[in-house]
Amino acid sequence: xxxxxxRTAGRRPAARTSGTRPISSDVHRLLxxxxxxxxxxxxxxxxxxxxxxxxxxxxxxxxxxAGGAFFPAELHLDNYLKVWxxxxxGTGLANSVLISGSVAIVCAFVALATAYVLVRHEFRxxxxxxxxLLGLQSIPxxxxxxxxxxxxxxxxSLLGIQIIGTRWAVFLTYLTFALPFSTWVMVTYLRGLPKxxxxxxxxxxxSSWRILTRIIxxxxxxxxxxxxxxxxxxxxxxxxxxxxxxxxxxxTAAVALQVFGATQEGGAVPLYGQMMAASLxxxxxxxxxxxxxxxxxxxxLTSGGVK
Amino acid sequence: MTETTLAAxxxxxxxxxxxxxxxxxxxxxxxxxxxxxxxxxxxxxxxLPGGILMVVIILVPLxxxxxxxxxxxxQYTLQSWLQAPFIALGNYVEAVxxxxxxxxxxxxxxxxxxxxVITLPVGVAAALATQNRFRGRALxxxxxxxxxxxxxxxxxxxxxTMLQPGxxxxxxxxxxxxxxxxxxxxxxSYWTLIIVQIWTSWPFFYLLVVAGLQSVDxxxxxxxxxxxxxxxxKLRYVILPYLRGPILLALIIAFLHNINAFTLPFVLxxxxxxxxxxxxPVLTYTTSFQSFRFGLSAAMAICSLVxxxxxxxxxxxxVKLDSGEEEQR
Lengths: 307, 329
What we know:
heterodimer, A: mainly alpha, MetI-like fold, disordered N terminus, B: mainly alpha
């Protein structure tokens, strides 16, 4: 039964069969060896080809990239210096880190509190809430963009608070849109926690808040980190909302990169080298996060899978 | 919200969990058998922060979207949008009869279906190949994830550069004597979108299949070995039946991912998109923020919601919301 395979977000689905007794690997082999080698080599070439190309092109000259060269004829490491002045990548990255970082922290704790109630307490509408957590995730962003934009602009006319163009606009949007998935990740995580400690605390007269902050939270750090990282990635990767709700001062790195692409239209040779360098810089934090927390993230991904 | 988020909860395909014989529900007011969920001291106020955010920034805008789709909204009437002229289903009629909506729906659905179906064998093959231990397996598994991990805007920028006329892809194919023509414009662009989407999304399928392989009973390997089954027979009649649930679930999720994909086509082709890759999310976006036909765009967005409703419904039915604690319908 699939459900028993890994209930918690943090467990690694890759863990092999129990391994209590030594079984010769031939028996467990799924593919014959030559086929296995072919599959892995082909996939690695397909995966690594474009990634290596990005790396090489980022230190290549624009003319050489435009001419279709894979390897740089000469090293242009200055691409990595120029890129900071060609577009305002520094501001973009700072905004991305600030917005996505605070979204991650706030979202993880809101998700923890929500998930705690959902997992441990019965109330009317609980199943509807759980189902909504899943359903809300697949609502197209393009459907939400315009009404959210209108909603935020009406706060300016009704309350006199200008949200659009500030970091608050994208912060609130990302926070909300990250919540359903992060909460779902926390729900699957909290289900794996034993109840004995809470029950003991309850008998000793601890309040729900105290149980949450003193017992659940210290036990849930892996789940909190996973749901926080997914919230971070949502903010970091978004182009749709940031392209409409930000102005040049609050622009995120993803949008800064788009402006980069757009300004190159129609000119002579586009600044391919710098574009690839900027892409690599934007991708690096995400890839590093993934590789460091891979074990936990993959578990969370398949327990409730997103990017 | 993103085009990529979706859950693939555990045990979606699992029939009758351990709690199947539990009392069906413990609604307050009904003195049902005491279940393990606590009904006293409920800190329901803890639901408020998340609940309020989701209501104000997801549910309210959904209602606003429905209202806007019945109004004649443009950049002049948007400021006081509630006073805009009410035209009932006028936007929908216009969207269906005199806008590229139907063509975009066709492109979106076929693109999403083709891309999901092709990732299936790739993901399954990768999962099977990395299932048995070998030297460097951990590294291979990490590398496999890279295309999925890269932000969609980076994937788009990268492939846009590679597929430029005279770029590296053309250079390599030219070396083989193949000259397929323009990748980023014209009829080929549709396949470009499919290829790049497959490149970036197959690892997710692979992950779900890897998780599904966990459910294969170790004993069946020995049984197969004793019966002398060849690898293909074993795969076809023993292993794949175990994977049917995870694969179907992955197909639905991949389809929903693909049909909502905005960033990749947006970055890969720019806007306005070439006619052959004018997928529904991009069309909705350009109708709003390039043509400023906000009412029409809202109607299109509602159509996209209707479009995903069927796979979403199947998906929500397949998912077991409550693992073991309480059986769901």
